[in-house]
Amino acid sequence: LAKTTQPISMDSYEGQEVNITCSHNNIATNDYITWYQQFPSQGPRFIIQGYKTKVTNEVASLFIPADRKSSTLSLPRVSLSDTAVYYCLVGDAGGGGFKTIFGAGTRLFVKA
Amino acid sequence: GAVVSQHPSRVICKSGTSVKIECRSLDFQATTMFWYRQFPKQSLMLMATSNEGSKATYEQGVEKDKFLINHASLTLSTLTVTSAHPEDSSFYICSAPETGFGNTFGSGTRLTVV
Predict the structure, then answer these.
(1) Mean pLDDT of chain B
(2) Rounded CA separation B73/B109 (Å)
(3) What pLDDT does residue B101 have?
């Protein structure tokens, strides 16, 4: 399982775009990149998943360069409710999911 | 997306007693379920992987006799913390794989052992 490295914490203001970068230098060919959001005392919530280039959904975008050794989660126009811990995970999604080993995550604090 | 229902959301028990936590996949079949533990301000730590119809696989350092896992059906996995002690107090979370969406997580169980 590829190890991931993220910034421990980030601060932002409401309305700004937030980009969180994750390093995964030893990502394997079959590995997907998945980002989760976790609020205190709740289970993690799926945000976005990708394999290469760019993926966009209604809440975020995921940018993956050609070498796939890193990825960037982009949250447009954050609000106070986006204050949470964000986890980047890498693994073989295969037919359904993968054994997920969590790193430390990034604590995002959005200020008014 | 799929839903994993986890119960109870919080439980307080006396030291030495056992507590059972249930996770149900509501609209899909989960042949595999992952169990995690999370201490305050820390990340999730994978404890074990349960597989329907077979024995669970435990991560290094996790006592299988203390954390009993049963995955008797395709929609239900349970974690029983046996002879709980205050150091077992933590936030326990389950998750099940979902095609194209990584893993779907339960809402977690806050266990407090007094």
Answers:
(1) 92
(2) 21
(3) 65
